[in-house]
Amino acid sequence: PLGKGSLVKQSYGHTPDMIRLFGKLVDEPYPWDKYAQVIVWNFGAGGMENTSATTMYDSAILDSTALLDGDLDGLISHELAHQWFGDLLTCKSWEHIWLNEGFATYFSNLWFEERDGKDAYLSGIYGAFQGVAAADKADAPYAAAMCSRTYIHPWEVFRRPANPYGKGCSILHMLRQKVGDELFFKSLVLYVDRFKGASPETDDLRYAFEDTSGLSLERFFNQWCKHPGAPTVDVSLTWDSAASALDVSLAQTQNIDGYNPAFYFTLPIWVKTPSGPKDGQWLSMDMDGRSATQSFPLNAEPTVIAVDPNLSVLGRFNVSQPAKVWLGQLDAGPTIASRLQAIAGLQKIGETPDSGGLSAEIVAALRSIARDKRAYHALRSAAVTALGKAGQADVISDLLRSSLDDAKVRRTVVEQVPAAYKAQQPRAASGAPRLIDDLRQAARRDASYAVRASAVRALGELKLPEAKPVILEAAGVESQHDQIRQAALEALATLDDPEGLAVAARYTRPGTYSRTRPTAVQTVGVLGHYDPQLAFDTLAGLLGDHEMRTVGAAGNALVKLGDARALPLLEEVGKNARSAIARDQARRMVKELQAKLEAPKPAQGG
Length: 606
Description:
The protein starts with 7 loop residues before the first helix and ends in an 8-residue tail after the last helix. The chain has 27 helices and ten strands. β2 and β3 form a beta hairpin. By secondary structure, it is an alpha+beta fold. It is globular, with a radius of gyration of 26 Å. The model is unreliable at 427-431 (pLDDT under 50).
């Protein structure tokens, strides 16, 4: 965009270092004569790789304030990695799209490992594991695997629960854990050498790893790539003082049947005892069925037990152990992933109905991490989230007032205010009333755009009368990506106040940022019951708009209104649609509106 040339370097300045790193890792220099990153108005996605040129969304040049919330390196590195994995090598067919998207996602994590260190890398992998494990479930009798030809339209392979981005990235990390760094990168070099300028399939990657490592990896690739789901494992850890041994019991509890066999894996467990090795010791346990048990002799009861701290196995591990052991893991776990696991374990204890909430010792430990400037922001944010979900309004209020140094952590504090406030209301905690004033101050004055936007959303979620003036004020605030205004429009919808309808309608018009208009349209749909004619006129007029996000949002909002006059308009949108995606979207809207119009009306009281 004009006038923002001075901001290009601070937004894209790491690109040459990324190019050098990726070329070095696969022993293949950047393959094209040039590399362009082009900012495009009204672009539909975040970024899109094209050979030697990446298309970026229209506000992807950051000012100095936006950089407080994070940079563009994740997106930039992802799209750049596609110059190798997607352009130099292009997967043979859609079921192998993870060879493009999983690699690009993984290489983004490799960039953060290079730039920020191991904690940045492993916390990124932890996030991928958590997302995939929560979504990818082997529902009986059949669910589509990541590598599956089961789809009607090609875009479906990008959106399935076995997501090629996160699951593909997770599989590459597991391969790295399985064969070690040297053989992992040697295998990637071989894979690129064999298939540059060609179109590989998933088994071609497997052959490269097998040829390099000497291992048989057919079962690994079959269960992670060609079968759906991820294991859900109950882990019981019991100290047998008489035998001086740690008893470990594992049970896979996900759906297991003829379509979905039990997963096979080797589970690493790291333990530390008072008189054992200073760096702890490793145990490992093979699992090839519904359940497994094993006893491990130790010289003393462990003070720390970390299950799979390097994330060798993708899955949901429900670990049962006392709070004191979780606290030991939080303090002395060998990796950031193990400390994140400890926070999740402690949070779960606090959510247990008979637990009485988090103990003072746990609260103090979490609060200490939240304030620790040396800790990686993902760990600090996880501690804040656990405190918020436990209803620690006093602690959240103190953190909000303490001007935490990292905007990403401050944002998490703000996001936890509604949960903490609602949990403490019955007990009338001293921190609860204070939170609202602190939230209003954050919405108006925080140095970070993202913190202000999150504070505005939180005020809407709380649905308090004193929130409305702040939210209306925020609708007029300019910010990077227009995020504060978007937050205000979302908050107005949540408040369900009639005054928000006219405000939202104003921002549906052309000239408003292309990613704000759909948010305004959605708010019109939510608040349209206050003035159905205004809402219908506003939305119907947008069905022929030149910004497709706005068209789609307008159609969905008209369905929500349930106005029969919209039916022929939506049918016309389908007839004139230029793409299969748009046609399917319009047909779905027509069906939903028809069903809504045909549904029995609620009986009126007399």
